[in-house]
Write a structure and sequence with these properties.
single chain; mainly alpha; 434 Repressor (Amino-terminal Domain); 3 helices; 2 strands; globular; XRE family transcriptional regulator
């Protein structure tokens, strides 16, 4: 079985912080957010780093690898 990239931690983090998806559209496009949400979103690692910086969280609060 192939490992997959899971962005569900990002959406949990947004919820924990009382934020909505549209509050990160200045970092990542709406289309990319939707791809991330539905499990088919490959993104640059620099984008993940930008999200971590904006949300002030470690990478584990944005993305995980599912085995």
């Amino acid at each position: 079985m192939k490992d997959s990239i899971d962005f569900s931690p990002l959406f949990l983090t947004l919820e924990e912080k009382g934020m909505k998806q549209n509050e990160i559209y200045h970092i990542v496009s709406k289309t990319t957010v939707n791809k991330m949400k539905h499990g088919n979103g490959n993104v640059w690692l620099s984008l993940v780093a930008d999200l971590c910086a904006e949300l002030d969280v470690p990478i584990e609060k944005v993305v995980q690898i599912k085995r």
